[in-house]
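DM from R.C. (forwarded with permission)

"hey, sorry to bug you on a friday — could you get me a structure for this? deadline for the figure draft is monday and I only need the backbone to look sensible"
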Amino acid sequence: MKKPKFWTLNKSIVLALIGGFGVLLVQVRYDHRSVVGDNAIAWIPIVYSILMIVASAVGLLFWTRGGRQTLLVGFLLAIPVGLAGYWFHTNGRLVRSVQHELSAWVRKIPDDDKPPALAPLAFAGFGILGTLACAKRFQPPISSSQSLDALLDS
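My reply, with the result:
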């Protein structure tokens, strides 16, 4: 009987997201260097990125034994993390802040000390990608011989 393939597109996406969370971790830690001492909220994306790097690595190892489902929850949490960051970066002025950032395409705007409004939405984007990769609906089909092998191996 043929063994199921260990590596799938979905696992490759999660592996790429590990790298993405690593890049976000370094960038956010650098960008938040001046505010983490004053505001504990600035630690949320840093700690979350570390947790998702570790959880994703473990989830890949235990993909068929609950790892995928656990990662699904972790990736779903990335969406509110990103939206909360968007809220904090814009001080609740969501549309005005985006208009300000988009205005850089048509006119020169002076440098300011405002945090980038759209940057936290990277977490939401990673969350959506990871959720799709871990959702049961998008898993490769298991043939009857593969499911029989899984039953015999357990």
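R.C.: lifesaver. The longest helix spans residues 67-90.
me: no worries. The two ends are 16 Å apart (CA to CA).
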